[in-house]
Every structure is written in structure tokens, then in C-alpha cells.
Amino acid sequence: MIGDHDTRRGLPPGQSGYADPRYGAPRQRSGLNRFLGGSPAAVAVKLLFLSVLVGAVMAMLGLTPGLLFWQIYDLSRHLIDLGFETFHDFGRWILAGAAVVVPIWFIARLLTVSRDR
């Protein structure tokens, strides 16, 4: 239980508050450690392991970084072309619908105006 005399009260998480010279002052994380998410050596080992793992999977699938880039490029071009084609079709649908709806609306308005007089 934390009492009123305890020096740990009110400190941010991760700081002990003890300044005992035997244990040293609480260490602050450097900007590099905060940016990397850990020590540079630990991050390098993690990245090396993940690189080997991803490289092995890519080799099993027959992918290379260049081929992967061009597949992503071709996919994005195809999606862009599909999007423009959809807008082209959408525009044709609007014109076809308007060719029927606008004259019917206009005739209905003429009949409504003539009835109101």
C-alpha cells in the first residue's frame, strides 16, 4: 500500500522515484531508442529475422522485389482504368435515364400547371 510518505506517488508510469545511489537514477530512453522501439541491436536482429522469413516466402512463391513492384503497378493501373470505365458507364446511364425521365417530368409539370389554372 502506498502511504503518504512514499516517494513513488504521483510519478509517471515507468519511473520508480528511488534515487538510491546503489541502483542509479532511473535511465531515460534516448531519442534513437524511442524512434526505433528498442535498442538498435535488438531492432536489427528482429529486422534480420523478418527479412529472412519474408525472403523465404517470396522465394517459395517465385516473387522478386522487381516483379512484386510491377505487379502492384499493373494492379493499380488496372484499378484506375476500371474506375474511369465505371465513371464512363455511369455517365452513359445518367444520359440514358435523363432522356426518359426529363421529358416525363416536363410533361407532368405542364399537366400540373394547366390543372392549377
TrEMBL record:
It comes from Methylorubrum suomiense. The lineage of its organism: Bacteria, Pseudomonadati, Pseudomonadota, Alphaproteobacteria, Hyphomicrobiales. It holds the Pfam family DUF6460. The chain crosses the membrane at residues 47-73, 93-112. This is DUF6460 domain-containing protein. The keyword Phosphoprotein does not apply. Residues 80-112 form the DUF6460 domain. Keywords: Membrane, Transmembrane, Transmembrane helix. Residues 1-23 are annotated as: Disordered. It comes from the Bacteria.
